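Data follows
____________
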Amino acid sequence: MQKTKTINIPIDEHGGLVLPEELRQQFDLTPGKRVNINLSENSIEIIQTAEKLVRVYIEPTNACNLECRTCMRNVWQEPLGMMDMVTFDRLMESVETLNPKPLVFFGGIGEPLAHPKIRDMVECAKKIGAPVELITNGILLDKNVANWMVELGLDRVWVSIDGAKPESYADVRLGDALPLVIANLKRLQTLQAITLSIGAPKPKLGIAFVAMKRNHNDLPEVVKLGKRLGADMFSVSNVLPYSLELRDQILYGHSMYHSDLQSSIASPGISLPRIDLDEFTIKNFSEGFTNSKIVQYAGQVVDKGVNTCPFVEKASISIRWDGKVSPCLPLLHSHTSYLDDNLRTSHSYSIGNILDKKLVEIWNEPEYIKLRHRLQEFDFSPCTVCNSCDMAESNLEDCFGNIHPTCGGCLWAQGFIQCP
């Protein structure tokens, strides 16, 4: 986690803030641009412009070596495919022109290590100077893969571990591969020591955990396991329920209806100090927090994810295995999931194809810029709270007059689901 940095800047004779040149370049704050500002009681927060591209999600394949019960691949009717190198090379040609280079993240809906050319892809992205991360279930992270990850200087590898015991892991991942995954990560940890002489060991390790009723008790042990394996980051997400079975497993049934930060008698806000989180505090606090919302922790707002697209906030773009470009990972593929008790269809949405246009041309399309601004304003109908009309059954239109994609029912935008 990056620490918040405070700087002192002057105000000119016209009342304008005089920002340092490096900040203006970093956040694309050039003359003529417009920015959004969040206002609070005693501070303002400048939101990054919607014009700067910071992160590129790449889906090398939507195929996988597992059939996890939590995966949307269980409920779609889409063909499986592998990104060919013509498509990938065209994409890298575009990324190479950007300065500074965006983070390249290999992920999507599939197992990146299942792509036969994934090593070449990582090597190419590193050669053009981009920071590179990759997410995997860890099963294919054998000695050869671990060697090239270290050799190429992969910046971070995320490994999905949803249980600390073989039986709980197998309950979600539908396989008894946890001992293999642990062995693979121990080997990687040993190889990382090679890079200690030239700086921080690479790749850094992050653990991704999908929490639900059946496995949330395993989270503390997963954190302990991850720390032993060298993990310095943990990303915990709720499950996106693609089935009624998973609908019964969600951990955010009450939280769905706390749609804003306005405190009330029915749903009071609570400001917490820094405090030990243990069995005693969690048990007693949970009883007092029923139908309440934690607004601040140690003076910091902790519920800023409401009505906020995390993919726009990260200034990201997503590329499917066939070259189609989407604003976010959830819109790469059409799928169904449950919004409370109602089935909702999320139709995929593409803003172009990397084979037809350069990435920067797609990013700067006027209609796409308008969409990003619309997502920053987030003037969509509150489908996660209301969810009572036919329009909530898909993302094609909403009762505010928005058309596809409508994001009022997106659980990523309400902070329930998150990707590394």
